[in-house]
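Please decode residue identities from the backbone states below.
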């Protein structure tokens, strides 16, 4: 009986989705996939994005954001590499969070206790999607900061023979990590078409890292004619100390992880002995009663 009710609820929700898709004129999967592939380059579009992109596009027309919030979210999306307007991002978030709630409506008539669970799931999805650009920027910032000690040492060495900042940045791009390389591509292109200081300031604003701010400060000093070799030597030393501290923190976390797996292995070994012991006792008991 419950199986029939559950299947009926699933089919009802799916039918409701098809009806809404027809009303709002959602594009076909092939069309959406083609559009998303163009926007994301060679990356494959996720199925959830393919299904929901058309609905989010239409819903975004009814979402109004104040100017400050829109500019802030637009900057975050751009820095995170998410090719969406702020309104479309909010619409996509609402839709993804609403799917579990939508599936929970039929359960109100069949299994009411499931609806609060699906409502909580929807809320978790909403807050996760809202914070997604910030989390992506945070990961990007951490990867760039991990490379800054090497980047600073390279600048220090190059400043002994040249003061051409554009040459130094383009030369480092060849050995840079992907995150920093992408940002340097943007920055060097900006420098070629505009003011050097403005391009570097935009680079600093996009990442919003105190460590990167120190590097940009030194580069701007070089552009203005200062001899910043000593500054970058000191900065390289400071970054090296920070790098060592991070490595020590990572090493301090390892014993806890190792202890967890050691306890798991110990539990498995004890379980093996227990099984052997139980089998031996059961076989001995059979011998006694036979």
């Amino acid at each position: 009986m419950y199986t029939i009710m559950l299947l009926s609820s699933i089919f009802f929700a799916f039918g409701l989705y098809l009806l809404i898709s027809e009303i709002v004129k959602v594009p076909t999967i092939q069309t959406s996939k083609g559009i998303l592939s163009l926007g994301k380059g060679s990356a494959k579009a996720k199925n959830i994005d393919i299904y929901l992109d058309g609905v989010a596009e239409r819903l975004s027309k009814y979402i109004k954001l104040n100017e400050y919030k829109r500019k802030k979210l637009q900057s975050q999306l751009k820095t995170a590499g998410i090719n969406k307007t702020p309104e479309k991002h909010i619409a996509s978030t609402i839709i993804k969070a609403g799917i579990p709630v939508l599936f929970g409506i039929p359960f109100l008539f069949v299994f009411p206790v499931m609806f609060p669970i699906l409502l909580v799931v929807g809320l978790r999805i909403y807050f996760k999607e809202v914070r997604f650009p910030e989390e992506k920027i945070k990961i990007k910032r951490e990867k760039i900061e991990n490379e800054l000690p090497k980047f600073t040492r390279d600048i220090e060495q190059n400043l002994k023979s040249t003061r051409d900042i554009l040459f130094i940045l383009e030369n480092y791009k060849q050995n840079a990590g992907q995150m920093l390389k992408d940002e340097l591509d943007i920055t060097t292109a900006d420098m070629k078409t505009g003011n050097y200081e403005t391009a570097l300031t935009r680079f600093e604003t996009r990442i919003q890292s105190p460590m990167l701010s120190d590097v940009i400060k030194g580069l701007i000093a070089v552009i203005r004619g200062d001899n910043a070799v000593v500054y970058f030597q000191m900065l390289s030393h400071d970054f090296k100390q920070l790098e060592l501290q991070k490595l020590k923190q990572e090493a301090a976390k390892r014993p806890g992880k190792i202890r967890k797996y050691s306890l798991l292995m110990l539990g498995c070994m004890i379980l093996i002995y227990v099984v052997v012991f139980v089998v031996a006792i059961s076989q001995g008991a059979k011998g006694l009663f036979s």
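Observation: The CA atoms of residues 104 and 115 lie 5 Å apart.
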